[in-house]
Input
Amino acid sequence: MNRLTVDEFREAPKLPLIVVLDDVRSMYNVGSVFRTCDAFRVEAVYLCGITAQPPHTEIHKTALGAEESVAWQYFKTAAEAVDHLHANGYKVYSIEQAEGSTMLQSLNVDDNVTRPRFAIILGNEVKGVHQEVIDHSDGCIEIPQYGTKHSMNVSVTAGIVIWEMFKRLTSEL
Output
């Protein structure tokens, strides 16, 4: 299957994307996000607030070891993570339905920077991304939805947005 070892993964070029989890309650969602980040060689996952941290059996159950390959860091709040990301040159987007949000398919990742770096923030399963975090973000990205529901599971949302960013940024790998 030509898979990388954990050591090879750590040394391999990464997608210039960091995924931030803002108070995500379910450890299964956390594990699923790690696994998706491994699949697309995402740079790192930032775990914030009440979001559980590895090692943990419930995270491992869905991550299947991706919590060992994908770099991660903990921040007390997602707002602290956003400040850290901005200080390091990342463009930060909250994934949230908000007034003035950009639809995912309309997001422009080409801002005339040699190697643009991005971060996406995914929020709590019930309350979403904290308003303070949205206010600190460079903008909001929204996934268009055409059914009767107006939200999706956080790990599903992560997969959709990471895939879209991967398609747009793969020339970096």
About this structure: DSSP finds seven helices and seven strands in the chain. The longest helix spans residues 154-169. The helical segments are 6-11, 27-39, 57-63, 66-69, 78-87, 131-136, 154-169.
